[in-house]
Amino acid sequence: MDDNAIRNIVITVVGALLIFFGICGNSLVAIAIWKKNYLRSTANYLLLNVALADITSLTFLPLVLVSIYGKFQQGITADLLCKFLISVHIPLTANFAAVFTLVVLSVEKYHAIVKPMKSGFRLREDTVKYAIIVVWTSAIAMTLPMYIFGKYARYKTKLFCDYDATEDAMSPYLYVLAAIVIFIPFIVISFCYFQIVRELYFKNKVAPQNVTTAAEDNIAKRKLVKLSLSITLALLVCFFPLALSMCLRAYNKEKLKSKYIQDFGSLLYVLKVVLNPFLYAFQSTNFRQAFKEMLKSKLCPCCK
């Protein structure tokens, strides 16, 4: 067995385990927010959307292996498979939705903590659904060219999912995609959390009349900010390298040169999705309580 075969086996096994735990963990998060009234808040609905995006991505991600190891006859059927099923298009759409959701979450926390008097800019439980619709619409719009131009093509001796567009047409799109999905979100999120941390930890405040209530409120805000920030940092560290490598590979027709880089980026991304539920559990008392109640009811139905 050669090194390439061993590498493929290791990546497949590790990836399968991470995908399994990622789907289970994020499903637990989604069910917890859906079932527990004390978890129903604007911020948690946004986190629910991130969890659902991660589940969607992980569900379709294994199908990419079909395009790697499977062989198809070039034609309409193979093109449709590449557009919608055996490519990274749906996982990318879901991930872009997760990125945009975290941008919305950071802006929401910014207005709640730094600009609390401007309530008109805040999301409410009855309006957060519109923000989520905009998030998914934007994610679909950003990946729409991939669905339109995706095809099953031959390059030299290799058959794989590619795009029916010239490099001159794809390059501007990839640059715009990188700017909107990677760099602009990074700038917006960094600005919002910098201002939030500055407001909570470094800014001098007038002493409130009810010191105890103010202190408890401040602690709750800090916990929520830590949770949101940790999820965002996990996304930055684990997803953006994959997005960048995919843009570079799409731009470079020598598809196999950076395969190790993309494999590493793919595993990093799946690791991020697996980490999210643990971040919820370790940094949120309410999520820990919900997980305990749900697991207890499943493992011991009589222990309620």
UniProtKB/TrEMBL annotation:
Keyword Iron-sulfur: no
Pfam families, per the entry: 7tm_1
Cellular localisation: Membrane
GO cellular component entries: plasma membrane
SMART domains, per the entry: 7TM_GPCR_Srsx
GO molecular function: G protein-coupled receptor activity
Domain of life: Eukaryota
Membrane topology: Multi-pass membrane protein
Transmembrane segments: 6-34, 46-72, 84-107, 128-149, 173-194, 231-252, 264-282
Domain G-protein coupled receptors family 1 profile, chain residue ranges per copy: 25-280
Keywords: G-protein coupled receptor, Membrane, Receptor, Transducer, Transmembrane, Transmembrane helix
Identification of the protein by name: Neuropeptide S receptor-like
UniProt organism field: Actinia tenebrosa (Australian red waratah sea anemone)
